[in-house]
Amino acid sequence: MKLNWKLLAAGSGFIAMLALAGCGSSDSGNTGTAKTVFTASNKYDGDLSKVTLHIGAASAKNAQGIVEAAGLDNTPYKVEFHNLRSGGLVLESIAAGQLDAGCGSQIPPIFASLANNGGNFKIIAIRKGTTLNQELIVSAQQKDKIKTVADLRGKKVGYVKNTTAQYFLYKMLAEAGLTWNDIEALPMSTSDGLSAISTGDIDALASYDNAVIVGKQKGAALLQSAENILSGDYYWYASLATINDPAKHAALVDYLERINEANEWARQHPQAWAEFESKASNQSPEEIRKRFEEGEAQRKGRIAPIDDATIASEQDIINSFTALGALKQPLEAVKLFDRSFDAAIAKFKIY
Question: How far is residue 315 from each of residues 105, 126, 322, measured CA to CA in Å?
Answer without folding.
Answer: 14, 15, 10
